[in-house]
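Fold it.
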Amino acid sequence: MQFAGNAVAQGTAYMERNFNQWVNMPALRHYFNVNNMYVITKLKLLLFPWRHSPWSRSIRRTETGQMDGFRPPREDINSPDLYIPVMALVTYILLCGLAAGRQGSFHPEKLYVAASTATAVAFTELVFTRLGCYFLSIPFEASLLDLIAYYGYKYVCIIVVDVVDLLGAKGWVSWVVFLYTGFSIGFFLLRSMRYVILPDSAAGPSTLNPQRKRRMWFLLMIAAFQMLYMFFLIN
């Protein structure tokens, strides 16, 4: 028994060492550092972002006053997390299966198609953002996980639309819900990703006006495309 226990412990340690070579576990834990209050408040923010203020993220400092990164989600409502996007994505895939089942056309492949489509959309968004930042000479200060979190929030809005459809609401009701949630997630990203696309917004005259306008248009495109992605994923 002791030999088996040692073997399991050694195997676990080996897997952790190799896994940590590819995944930054401390950074990943940061995005899942949430609590119930954060989740509830964040869901309200995603659906009703209009009067929220401020949008800036809270900085964590050491005892000497040095900047030590950003506060985790449970301590800052403006901090992006991965818990809500992951749960929303899983729920979206299950709802796709449920909708297919109600139509009598369910097959496990439907879940695979939904997951593959969501992955393709996420990849497209990430590439578009990185290329836009490159061509506009935007210093990219956000991490890849930040972008995945921000773009993953749209699935909360998609779930709302899907649930309304599953409850039998059709026609103008469904379209009103779709348009509202599309505008809400667009507005949320417009304010939340401002520090990513316009990192020097507080610098004033140091940023040339034409360059700042191009960056602003790029940010508006990112926000506007959310509704397009939502329409594609829902249908």
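The first strand starts at residue 59 and ends at 61.
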